[in-house]
Amino acid sequence: AQSVAQPEDQVNVAEGNPLTVKCTYSVSGNPYLFWYVQYPNRGLQFLLKYITGDNLVKGSYGFEAEFNKSQTSFHLKKPSALVSDSALYFCAVRAGASGNTPLVFGKGTRLSVIA
Amino acid sequence: DTGVSQNPRHKITKRGQNVTFRCDPISEHNRLYWYRQTLGQGPEFLTYFQNEAQLEKSRLLSDRFSAERPKGSFSTLEIQRTEQGDSAMYLCASRSGLMNTEAFFGQGTRLTVV
Question: Quick one: closest CA in B to A33, which residue?
Fold first, then answer.
């Protein structure tokens, strides 16, 4: 069975500082990994994905994530946080072997960027 | 490409009533998913369509829930005899048939059962 863990319910960071939102996963076979962001009363917006290739993937709004197979992690990062980055962030995984499996999401991490 | 559209955005209903939600996916996407999200939780998978075929249903999908996707285009999710525990945000997502593609989500329908 697939699962995702986001160990931090809340991450606080000062504007301009680097940010990291943590994610670990469990899946059979090769993982397809995703990060989504959710603003209040809105659906989820896709940020970035890891399918194969370079372990460091770059996405929207200056975000990037690093895939670490040995640690089964896919942490989201940004070099310099903005107040507008404050939102709810979800990590998700899908088993790569089959294109039919749905995404499994973590519980989310609320990011608060303080001016 | 107008994105994934869900209607209504909000629905308040009395316990015991039936409700139906609609999802219009991105037009060329053959895969459509329904998720439920409650406060403080991540989206939980409910059911999935490939074209008009419903291929998978979660154990969360009780017999009061039914979903359809006639002709492989829009989809509807119906909840019969609503209960207060059904109050949640219902999210629809679609993606193409290519294995490495991401899912695109609609803005959701927020259901409140009173």
Answer: B102
Q: pLDDT tens for residues B45-80? A: 999 999 999 999 998 889 999 999 998 899 999 999
Decide if A91 contacts A105 (C-beta within 8 A): yes
How far is residue A19's CA from residue A75's CA, in Å, rounded to a whole number? 10
Mutate to test the interface with B, among A32, A38, A44 (most CBs of B within 10 A): A44
CA contacts within 13 A on the Cβ side of B35: 23
The shortest CB-CB distance from B43 to any of A41, A42, A105 is to: A105
User: Whole-number mean pLDDT of chain B?
Assistant: 94
B45 touches chain A (CB under 8 A): yes
Per residue in A17-60, pLDDT (tens digit) is 999 999 999 998 889 999 999 998 778 999 999 998 899 999 99
Residue B102 is given by DSSP the state P
Torsion over CA: B47, B48, B53, B56 (sign): negative
CA distance A77 to B26: 29
For tokens 């989500």, name the residue: B105
**Alpha carbon of A79 to those of A10, A82, A112, B10: distances in Å?**
18, 10, 15, 37
Q: Would you say residue A77 has pLDDT above 80?
A: yes
Of B97, B104, B107, the CB nearest to A42: B107
- Give the residue on A whose Cα is nearest the Cα of B10: A41
Supply B91's token pair.
């999210």
What distance in Å separates residue A49's CA from the closest CA in chain B?
A: 8
